Amino acid sequence: MMRDFDFVGWLSQTMGKGPWKCRCGVAIDHPGVCDPCGEKLAREQAEAPVRTAVESIPPRFRWARFDAEQLRERVRPVAAVQQAIEATDLLSSIGQSVVIIGPAGSGKTSLACAILRAVAMRRGGHAWRCRFAAALEIGAARGAYGTRSPLESDAIAASCLLLDDVGQETEADRIHIAEVLHARHDAERPTIVTSAFEPPVIHARYGGGVDRRIFEGASLIFVGGQHV
After folding, report:
1. SS3 letters for the chain?
2. 154 close to 187: Cβ distance less than 8 angstroms
3. pLDDT digit string, tens, across residues 112-163
């Protein structure tokens, strides 16, 4: 008498047999990818948050990192680089914001970009998203009537935001920067702020509410100017 064919059993045995090929074309003895490709994929996934952060930085500042000799050549005083490293530790561990103040050409944006890159490397993970945004561009961006612009919304939502050159926007556009700072403060999201203006000037331009959200509890670093 002919026995019924055990299709399920045959399928389960057959599916467990090779040969398989990795996406690189190498024959392997298991489904998936070969060990070298697996290691490469893991590196790419780990580096993805850093790439996202770096790609948001203007090309002229993408070189900036703490191990770059150019950073120490550009930033004055050089001690500010060590201050920034210490501020990065606090931002990464407890979410403490950073404010860097100095005149044009003092290296404040380069220093801030080095912090942003370091934070992206330390925090990692796709859930922690770091990005660069120019205050001038956020202030000038316009959304549909009664809504925020996509640029402003993205700046608010970033896990860690580098908000560059605060105070350079026009008086009419200042409200958008204030909204970003208020929203991020309320959500307890750390912000790296750079500005050419010292605290009293920022207070005069924005008022006490925004002033407090910028400086309260933040690491304050001065580069160039009278604080050298």
Report:
1. CCCCCCHHHHHHHHHCCCCEECCCCCEECCCCCCHHHHHHHHHHHHHHHHHHHHHHCCHHHCCCCCCCHHHHHHCCCCHHHHHHHHHHHHHHHHCCCEEEECCCCCCHHHHHHHHHHHHHHHHCCCCCCEEEEEHHHHHHCCCCCCCCCHHHHHHHHCCEEEEECCCCCCCCCHHHHHHHHHHHHHCCCCEEEEECCCHHHHHHHHCHHHHHHHHCCCEEEECCHHHC
2. no
3. 999 999 999 887 655 578 999 999 999 888 766 667 889 999 999 999 999 9
pTM of the predicted structure, to 2 decimals: 0.79
Which residue is listed with tokens 């890159």? 117
Domains of the chain by start residue, with CATH: 41-227 (3.40.50.300)
Per-residue model confidence (pLDDT) at position 10: 46
pLDDT beneath 50: ranges in the chain: 1, 10-12, 14, 16, 228
* Six token digits for residue 159: 């896990």
Starting at the edge strand found earlier in the chain, the sheet holding 160-164 runs 130-134, 160-164, 191-195, 98-101, 219-222
Instruction: Supply the pLDDT for residue 126.
Output: 54
